Amino acid sequence: MMKKVTFRTGGTTVTDGVALARYVLEVMPDVKTVVGLNQDYAYGRDEWADFKNALLTMKPDVKVLDELFTPLFATDYSAQISKILDLRPDLVHTSLWGPDLVNFIKQATARGLFQQTRVAFARGEFGLYEGMPDDQIVEGPHYHGFPDPKAYYINRDFVEAYISRFGSPPPYPAYHMANAILGVKYAFEVAAAVENVEWPDLSAVVKIFERLAYATPGDYIIMTPNHNAMRGLSWASQKAVSSLRLSTCTRLRSTRRWAF
Amino acid sequence: MINALVAFYAFFLNLLAVSIGMAFIYGVARVLNLAHGAFFVLGGYLATALITRLGPVPGALATAAVLAALPPLFYLYVRLTRNELEQLFATYALLLLMEGLFKLVFGYGNYTLADLAAGLGAASVGGQRVPYAYFLAGVAVAGLMATFYLLLYKTRLGLYMRAVSDDREMAAALGVRSPLVQHLSIFLGIFATALLGAVAATWQAYTLGLSAEVLIYAFAALVIGGLGNIWGTAAASALVAVARTAVVMFYPELELLVIYIAVIAVLLIRPGGIFTRYARVA
Q: If you measure CA to CA, which chain A residue comes closest to B14?
């Protein structure tokens, strides 16, 4: 019964790793050595495995120098930063998020890590507000600047409403919530229209939701029959805009993957 | 090599900062303070909030003033309990209360002074970039340890503290006012913890949920070093820092486990702690 009414509008995290690997090869086609720095739990391990496998499949001669795993919510990354400074890879891949991301960015900036190597952040969008250094590869499930609010009215309304209410641009959890709420709303509305009733039966809603495709502020979501979503993400190379406290991304892209 | 040394130094400072205050509180007053991490984090939050608002020197002074005024509240709260079990409940409840207060007063953001500290610049040691903030933090912690040394070994109060830490009833029988000494050491422990939390804001960010993480490291260093022995705690911090840096350099898969392996090994081989000379009496 639970499976019947459970829908996941967030998509799976396989797209993080694969998309990042493709973008890395696009901006750094001569990358030779990689080091992974991830948290030691399911997401960190899965994300690293996805990225590593995708990268090695597309470019088998890349050498993985080391795979570092840190405890979740560890506050001190000095040992890992020292190891990376010693190894001197071309690229560091990290799926650190939240407070870990902030700690890592601050400590790595202090030690001069970003002058020596380039870092690909799989969940780095939060770091943009916390002093992300220039020229790093940042990926996130959503970014308030993509699709460009100047061109896409749904995102423009969403961002403006969010800023007027909370004072800062919406982070990716806000977009995830919007996706979920809009999905439920459209499923019920479409089911009501199809069945021609005021409030549709639950089984009708489920049948509609399984094949729903709808536009949201950050994305265009296509729900699939096994109750997962097919959606995109955004990634780019970071470039600081000196007049704003916030950084913007150049060459924003999105991709769509069959991820179940 | 220099990188490994910097890593060891940074983590050693980190562990020392979280565990020194606890050595005082548990060693002399026998209060098992589960809210220890919350006070450490409180110091960091306060320092960040006040220094970013008032500027470095007035902010630092304001932080120190607030932190000096705070311990009596904790002491009053703990004195309401009658035995160790109630102490556990009371301090755990205090931890949850303080986390709630942090959410109310400071919100969900990340509070850190790392940007300010980065403005101090960096030295180039052996070709590697070591921020001046690390040296400054080291000087601050060393200063605090020196103050503790002077307090414990050169003053009458320190003598009483050491006596109460060894055997409270015997000290009382010899004329030491044990309850007062214990209260004072609780004050000192809380103040030191919060102050070190403020110093630690220069390299780490504070956010909700950090209190529990910090508590685990503090307990680990305390248990390995021997309960209530501040030099033991310092040596244990150095030991754990060496172990963790070596593990990351040579066998990184083990990093999640290394501190727990150290604690388990000490508990199995020498449960009193590595740096104690004799078993505790009371």
A: A76
pLDDT (0 to 100) of residue A236: 66
Q: Which of B7, B133, B209 sits opposite A79 (nearest CB)?
A: B7
H or E element in which residue A46 lies: helix A42-58
Question: What is the number of residues in chain A?
Answer: 260
Residue A20: its pLDDT value, please?
Answer: 85
Distance CA A103, CA A183 (A): 35
For chain A, give every residue range classified as CATH 3.40.50.2300.
2-9+148-230, 14-144+233-254
CATH of domain A2-9+148-230: 3.40.50.2300
β-strands A137-140, A63-70 pairing: unpaired
How many angstroms separate the CA atoms of B16 and B86, rounded? 28
Chain A contact for B7, CB < 8 A? yes
Nearest CA in chain B to A113: B129
Q: What is the ipTM of this complex?
A: 0.85
Rounded-to-integer distance, Cα A195 and Cα B151, Å: 81
Tokens of A215: 């536009």
Q: Is the peptide bond before A60 cis (omega within 30 degrees of 0)?
A: no
- Which fold is adopted by the domain A14-144+233-254? Rossmann fold (3.40.50)
* Model pLDDT for residues A136-168, shown as the tens digit of each residue: 888 877 777 777 778 888 889 999 999 999 988
CA-to-CA dists, residue B252 to A39, A186, B186, B237, angstroms: 12, 48, 38, 20
Check: CB of residue B42 under 8 Å from CB of residue B103: no
Rg (CA), chain B: 19
Q: What is the pLDDT of residues A95-106, one digit of tens each?
A: 998 889 999 999
Single-letter residue type at B11: F
